[in-house]
């Protein structure tokens, strides 16, 4: 039985001991890897007579202090670690453990990924390698010796610099690595394998020469170039925008096929999911190119925000993750399209984070209570965390924000610190009082802002009143008013921007909403106002703002801010779809159809933005915005809206589609935008369902010279449920059946196709040779996509979707608990659905709860859902 006890943030206390340095020796064997760890331990707490070390699923061979083996009564090995009797101020500790990497399917600690050994230690994986103070506030210098078979594992890698290497007896060899920077155990990494290596160099702004090495599976070298280019771009951007430079002589990235997340920022040796590295035009879509650039950037940016300054304890995770997501978002935005990147981030918030806040796992960006830390790598900690940093940036402005960053590094370089330390640096450097603002760190839930407006034509005054409240969440009953930055714009009926005057003074276009209700009165307003609120999503809130169709249409056409134009389109479409669900109307109004027609016809508009405006809000986002909507009615209303647009705009969409066709493939911002618009048009046309639209899809599928277009055509056929879909699915499978990474796209198509017997197809796909329950990418593509993206299929009224997911979770519980817990999220949406579905979901949750060997990861989510 595992330890299901929750840990509390409030219980933090410093470790009794520190470890100044550790020498590791790994003798790699598939089923019997020997690990010898020699640590220099110092007592911190004079009263401590025992050394308490973390350890998990380890085979302990022996323990020695100052070179002398300990007798059995001097140490005790338990489920969660080891207690050693050691009433000493300073000593050398030697621990020998044995591991079975080939059978480690949880992919934490040391494991085999295909032909290579690799490690994943964050959050608490190092304790699966050796007994240690496996906590982020214990910083040690690491030196690592790796021994392995030379023919099978020619590359032996670890953190820092390689200081020695050579041959050993029996066809084995070794390499010795030394990392000059003290680091927490979660940043340790080891890789051994046979790879192709892409090599490059980067000269930092101060002239340091850095060797860049990208390790990929044999034969994949050409698919690594985009990742390498992204790395160099990231290094340059961090120097220019944040003044931060790389600090070692070598930066290595290894791509592996079996990996629980996107990537990991281990010091000097990033380990990446191959999905987040490999790309060429034939196999990767534009979205994947973008994602790779962003993840390469994210891991690189961690070198300062995460590695040089790390977290005191895991409750502070957002200290590094929220900040680093903010940094990677800014990077993508600076080197690409600002509006498209903002839209992407906001979709993540509305489609996923708001749902987390509304469900049983609601937690603040700095959680207070954790059973399994891996469950807290969430959209709340990451993406809402980034929104909190963004609000700070909005409140302080770039110059004061950067001054805050400089002060943060000045004070804390080389330390393990807290979110409060970060906020204090920002407050001290800027002189801005952030006391109320810091509530964003401790309060969970999505605030709701209610808007009311009035206009006095005689006095020419426009009055805006905002009320805020945050609904109670299961973890917190009481909520307080937050400091909410409200970016706004007032437009007149012609769509022109109006100056913001209060007391005859111009005010900044960002209001500070700090009370539960506040009003502002704007002067010299000559006529009725069209209000644009929360420009650029200036705060992660839900807005209750009744706005007329014509006002929203005006914003789509005229707002200065591109984000506002997109947002208005989404709100307009959402309002109409809600009205259709509630049977107040049977179809979209002509105002909406014409507003979108104008977008299709406007060739002065950025094509990438036009594509986003023509993309309807996801069912998940709609369900978050309005509680209690019937799953099926929502699905049908959204689908009817798509069909109507496809039919009514057929001529305009076809013309725009043709205008976007490019003779040659290019991977540039402009070309990506044109492809996006072309494919947005195609998707609507496919929903229209006309025979010539199907022909267009088929032609694009068969003649595409890149994966973006090919997959878009396949997706349009599937979503439109067009007869030609089946043949193209077959063709895709035949072309790519031996490339599992590409087959993931096919699995997603199977899982999300708009057909009635989707589960039959998914079960067939599970028998495909490319499918593998032990590989998280495959599991997420087929099972995860079904549960999270096929809302209508997953919530089938007979409960078959819930049952299917639960069967798979039971299988995964024994293979990879972390992966299981990630894909179970949709099963927690009890509050989103009607009573009958809730009963069916509860049955499945109870089935999980009664599993005799339920992992901590699933236990935490299941018990919260049922509680
Ligand atoms: N820090 C890692 C995530 C580790 C997740 C552990 N379950 C990747 C990242 O956020 O950069
Ligand atoms: Zn990160």
Entry summary:
With 867 residues, this protein is α+β, with helices and mostly antiparallel strands. It contains 26 helices and 33 strands. The protein folds into 5 domains: 7-194, Sandwich (Immunoglobulin-like); 310-442, Orthogonal Bundle (Neutral Protease, domain 2), CATH 1.10.390; 448-544, Aminopeptidase N, middle-beta domain (Immunoglobulin-like, Sandwich); 547-719, Zincin-like fold, CATH 1.25.50.10; 727-867, Zincin-like fold, CATH 1.25.50.
Number of helices: 26
Strand content: 15-25%
Shape: globular
Relative helix content:
40-55%
The average pLDDT is: 97
User: Biggest sheet, open or closed, and with what strands and sense?
Assistant: 8 strands, mixed
User: Order of strands side by side in the largest beta sheet?
Assistant: 6-5-9-3-2-12-15-14
Radius of gyration: 28 Å
Beta strands, count: 33
Under the CATH scheme, the architecture of the largest domain is Sandwich
CATH class of the largest domain: Mainly Beta
Please identify the structural class as seen in this structure: alpha+beta
**CATH fold name of the largest domain, please?**
Immunoglobulin-like
Structure overview:
- The protein is α+β, with helices and mostly antiparallel strands.
- It folds into five domains: 7-194, Immunoglobulin-like (Sandwich); 310-442, Orthogonal Bundle (Neutral Protease, domain 2); 448-544, Immunoglobulin-like; 547-719, Peptidase M1, alanyl aminopeptidase, C-terminal domain (Zincin-like fold, Alpha Horseshoe), CATH 1.25.50; 727-867, Peptidase M1, alanyl aminopeptidase, C-terminal domain (Zincin-like fold).
- Helix content is 41%, strand content 22%.
- The protein contains 26 helices and 33 strands.
- It has an eight-stranded mixed β-sheet, with no helix packed on it. The chain has a five-stranded mixed β-sheet with strand order 17-18-19-21-20, with helices on one face. A four-stranded antiparallel β-sheet has the order 10-11-16-13, with no helix packed on it.
- A hairpin with a 5-residue loop joins strand 2 (17-27) and strand 3 (33-43).
- Helix 17 (707-719) runs antiparallel to helix 18 (725-736) and helix 18 runs antiparallel to helix 19 (740-752).
- (3S)-3,7-diaminoheptanoic acid binds next to strand 20 and helix 2.
- Residues 298, 302, 321, 324 line the site of zinc ion (ZN).
